[in-house]
Amino acid sequence: MTLGALALDSDALAVCYIVAFVLFIFGVRQGTHPRTARRGNWIAAGGMAIAVAATLATDVIGNWPLIATGLIIGTAIGVVASIRVQMTEMPQLVALYNGLGGGAVALIAWSEFRHVSEGFGLEEFIPILFATVIGSVSFWGSNVAFGKLQGLISGASVKLPGQQVINALLLVGIIALCVVLAVDRDSPSEGLFIAVLVAAGVLGLMVVLPIGGADMPVVISLLNACTGLAAAGAGFALDNIALIVAGTLVGSSGTILTLEMATAMNRSVGNILFAGFGGAPVGSGSSEQRPHTSIGSQDAAIMLAYADSVVIVPGYGLAVAQAQHAIKEMADALGQRGVTVRYAIHPVAGRMPGHMNVLLAEADVEYEDLVEMDDINPDMPQTDVAIVVGANDVTNPAAKTDPNSPIAGMPIIEVDQARQVIVIKRSMSPGFAGIDNDLFYDDKTSMLFSDAKAAANEIASAIAEL
Amino acid sequence: MDAVTEITIFVLAALVGFEVISKVPATLHTPLMSQTNAIHGIVLLGGLLVIGFADNPLEDAIGVIAIIFGTVNIVGGFLVTDRMLAMFTRKKSRPKSEPPSGGEDSS
Q1: Bridge-partner residues for A386, per DSSP?
Q2: Sheet containing A370-372: which strands, arranged edge to edge?
């Protein structure tokens, strides 16, 4: 099948790609407000359609039956996955998609490597190796992240003795193999190339395995950045500006999110990747019983119903309990009584950036009621009741008061400043970081020991009966 | 295209990316991530190009898998982003908060 007469020449292709970039950037730009974001998403999709169609119209494209097979299978999987995924499962899906992107890049680099002939300079060869390594790290790392989030492998921190030494040796080994391949690029050994592919995959596994659940927002963002950069690397290797620009855009996004998440935990990215703290209960240290106040849902309902302003602080426990709809009903019941209800969202409240907002949006919570940490904290002293649902470390005042705490310096939602606090929690057990929370023992704090969903339902019906 | 031109494009794209994406509010970070998932599906183009010069079954297989992965990223990424954004934009319980006609923000 020849499309020679219709084929785009390289100038026409470049023009199509430029149109595509403009649409990508404009589309992402529209993502800065919820009212325009949906349109922006379709604008970016339009840019993608133009880029794909233009590429298919060039005369270097062959092997149509295989192309059609790949496009059809990929479309079918993409449609089914995006319709069936639950909003609580978004972090897994994003991890999986990161992995697919990374895997595609590594495979493309492999194919390109097999066609490296004489005349290939370092400026093609280095990007091929870069794309291979980062793509493979991203593929295997993302799959581990997916497995952890999906509960297929332990979400806790899995550590091998000497893990950091092994990782360092792997990295040095990968670099050494790449140097050998690059020096010998006129007749490179495919065996060595596959060794690079495998070693990078093992490195991806080893880096993500020790990372616990609470650190997942950082890891997913970082893998997102890696996949974008790997795609940009493949663009350098293939001399394709569409890949360079789009990959770089994704790399920027992932980098921004990674840094924001790390800032929100007051830890460096390196510390999160190599210290493996967010998951291992750090011993069961001080297990001595301290006095705390426990209440039932009736009392909680009365406290909330007679308040003027209530702030709900959701955490990952809310997602686990699928309590977003029940919480919204509780908030509605309060709203009908004239109580002002807002939601305080910590940047790392879920398992990925912005996760909690999506869950609450799913339950029809208005965008305007979702308030970021820095905006809600100044209002906390005027808040009658702060109700913490399935969150722990992000409310722990020790982050501000105890310089020796593992979370010292982490920005928190200052619920301890509110007039009264209700904490809905299954038990007194510490959070992911394994740190005792002084908030639970505060005089103004009442503990409501229950499943988040059951508690919210009970409170909502108790308010209705008042 | 020479390497210097490509690096120039890379640097400019990074600057634009940082500028635009740092304005996305935290509330929309999850849709942003799934949208960037879809955008890195651009690697589909790489799959389409390399399968053109595939000349043995291994390379065919590599190319098809890369095309499948890229297509899943694009189709799944944009669709799931749309699903999420639809939840943020739908207006229901609070019709009074809708701005008066003409107040539609188009930028």
Answers
A1: A311, A421
A2: A293-294, A445-449, A420-425, A385-389, A309-314, A340-345, A370-372
> Per-residue pLDDT for A119 more than 70?
no
What residue segments make up the domains of chain A, in order of their start?
85-275, 293-465
Taking the Cβ of residue B61 and every Cβ of chain A, the question of whether any pair is shorter than 8 Å is answered with no
Judged against a pLDDT cut of 80, whether residue A81 lies above it is answered with yes
Nearest residue in chain B measured CA to CA from A73: B68
Extract the residue ranges of chain B whose pLDDT is less than 70.
1, 90-107
Which chain B residue lies closest to A112 (C-alpha atoms)? B50
Q: How many domains does chain B have?
A: 1
Backbone phi and psi for residue A79, each to the nearest 5 degrees, phi listed first: -65, -50
B71 and A103 within 8 Å at the Cβ level: the answer is no
**pLDDT value for A281:** 41
CATH code: domain A293-465 is 3.40.50.1220
Q: Which of residues 351-390 of A touch B (CB under 8 A)?
A: 352-355, 357-358, 361-362, 364, 366-368, 370, 372
In a domain, B38, yes or no: no
Close Cβ partners of A167 (under 8 Å, ≥ 6 residues apart): A203, A206, A207, A274
Which domain range does residue B66 map to? 44-89
Residues of A in contact with B81 (CB under 8 A): 41
Could you tell me if residue B49 is inside a domain?
yes
**What was the pLDDT predicted at B9?**
93
